[in-house]
């Protein structure tokens, strides 16, 4: 990629130089191909969570998972050892991406490709060029959303800033950031195509009309949630519901009963970040016996019993591992085979004892082939292994090594339906209600997702019961897709959910297997953790970023 080298001139992430030792800015916009590469560079900043926090997925900072290394960076989320001086997931650097957008937009205003008029591809290229600035603006809106859900009030630079400007810009209140994102998404959605298939190069993974609408929908969901809407203004929930309904009515996307991760082919996926071949994710997350001795340190994202308990039986009954063993009201539940006949999403998310993997069965019982007595055994610390995003065909066998692409799903259609379900329930305070504008009930929306997963319909007939149901659905449908960490915060449930994570101990006896809930880790939670601290180095550079977020 002919992306310009980023050379920092000051300590503020809002400021960098786009020049390189070979090409200047005029060179980078000399041809269609070069301009396209500059746009592609903006995409390269798109966040993903395939082990990006010291090899850990972000869910290791939630009650859904534990990281193998007790000293891993992500553990700061769990033990409280993070601060403005010692940050985790320092996404302030997304301002690099936002400055790239400003540079791109300013440069594209001066671009003249008319000298290529007689090129055979000219008309097709200009059709693409017509979308370039709208793609960039939606990406900027998305990056601002990512910053705002981390930090709350944030700067919103609308041009390339000088060092002096970067170190004096003030924060924009969260609600105003939301309005800017919504306005940008509305304007750009009207100009973007629903797909690039059929256009030049049949490109996939580009910002479409649907993704612009998705960024708006996601932003309004967060704006309506308790963290940013403590007074419970129901009109904010109505806006979130309407934005989701607009995507539903678009008719472009459909639910997919197959796998949505690691693929670009699913009709459910709205935007996917495409990555090259790699085996590192499997190296960190395979049961250790399948890594052929190549895993040499404590790693891995290990699902917790807390998460396992969120998956119901196939008949829609709760299952919980208690001090007295497995408990469920499902008359068909077999406590001797507790992972059988569960929500089908369970087997796509988690590898549990007895499940098939690479032609054999996973053994996490004490003494089993995949059991770990201590963390230093480099295996599971919870009794479970990760399945989602793991490519089973990856091989570490000498002379037969194989690695595959891992495509990160940025947004998929099921999120639209659950956004609508949650927002409609919060607006009407009744999951069955509709009106002339919100013509779908919350129950109808959630049950589309349930039916796609081959799960029975939710029948909750009141606000509280449905709230519990939709939060469960978010958790199991989007496990390890970078949702739980943020949902805990926007719902304000950290104190109730983030202080203890558990696992399972399985012991083989003459009568079968005994399952015991075990404590994996006691964690620290304070409500200041609902937002990240602004990095102290940024406050030193720019005092106008004060006040620091509450509690930090």
Describe this structure in words.
- Helix 9 (234-250) packs antiparallel against helix 13 (413-428).
- The chain is of the alpha+beta class and 552 residues long.
- The two termini are 39 Å apart.
- The protein is 35% helix and 10% strand.
- The chain is globular and about 80 Å long.
- Residues 1-17 have low confidence and may be disordered.
- Among the domains are: 1-52 and 90-172, Serine Threonine Protein Phosphatase 5, Tetratricopeptide repeat, CATH 1.25.40; 53-88 and 278-406 and 499-552, no CATH class.
Please tally the β strands and state the result.
14
Characterize the largest beta sheet: strand count, sense, and whether it forms a barrel: 2 strands, antiparallel
Fraction of residues in helix: 25-40%
Distance between the termini: 39 Å
Major sheet strand order? 1-4
Query: Helix/strand/pairing class, anyone?
Result: alpha+beta
Stretches where pLDDT is under 50 for at least 5 consecutive residues are 1-17
Q: What coarse outline follows from CA principal-axis ratios?
A: globular
Residues in β-strands, percent: 5-15%
Please tally the helical runs, counting DSSP H or I stretches of 4 or more residues: 18
Mean pLDDT: 94
Instruction: Give Rg in angstroms.
Output: 24 Å
